[in-house]
Amino acid sequence: MTPEDDRTEAPLVGDEVPLLTGFLDFQRQTLAWKCAGLSPQQLATRAVATSDLTLLGMVRHLAAVETGWLVGFGGLPYDVWPDVIRDRDEQFRVDPATVTQEDVDAAWATWHAVTDAVGTVVDQLPLDTADRPWGRDDEFSLRWILLHLVEEYARHNGHADLLREALDGATGE
Questions:
Q1: Is the domain defined by 23-168 classed in CATH 3.90.1210.10?
Q2: Where are the alpha helices (DSSP H) in 36-133?
Q3: Global confidence as pTM
Q4: 141 - beta bridge partners?
């Protein structure tokens, strides 16, 4: 390809894993950027009074989502997964009056451990691996799950953008 030719070519099948994980990593980095430089109280600030949605709650929720889709997937051992908050309401329930830096650090440590565990799954299983995720009735392929995780992060990153803008005016990817 010459410098003058800036057309994007369709990826080859072998490029599919880095393409999917690259988009997932971009969405993860976007969430981390939306949370960067904020105090525990800011991370625990609700979007609106009638919602439990907070940035810290999203970090906890997305760790649980990744775990929920892939724990035990493809016969991999359960011990690669950190313990996450399973109760959806509890994931989002964060009180700015009582939240601590330790709460924030624990949420990020769990989130990072989960993203590492997903990397283990992706490194060990082909994209066409199909399995029934924990607690689900249907089988899904690893490819479908990774695409779903990209969608889940993208949707919540839209929420994160609104939260961050309300906190300090910061916007963007």
A1: no
A2: 40-43, 55-70, 88-92, 101-124
A3: 0.87
A4: 130
Please give the single-letter amino acid code of residue 124: Q
CB within 8 Å of 78: residues ≥ 6 apart = 71, 72
60 vs 110: CA distance, rounded Å: 8
Structure tokens at 112: 């990072």
- Whether residue 106 is predicted with pLDDT greater than 50 in this model: the reply is yes
Q: What is the pLDDT of residues 31-50, one digit of tens each?
A: 999 999 999 999 999 988 88
Q: Burial-class residue 115 by CB neighbours within 10 Å (0-12, 13-18, 19+).
A: middle
The span from the CA of 119 to the CA of 112, in Å, is 11
Find all residues with CB under 8 Å of 35, minimum gap 6, and list them. 43, 55, 56, 59, 160, 164
What residues contact 126, with CB distance under 8 A and at least 6 apart? 142
On whether the CB atoms of residues 42 and 122 are closer than 8 A, the answer is no
Q: Which amino acid is at 59?
A: V
Backbone angles phi and psi of 172, in degrees to 5: 115, 180
Using DSSP, state whether 133 is helix, strand or coil: coil
Residue 42's nearest CA partner among 56, 53, 52 is 56
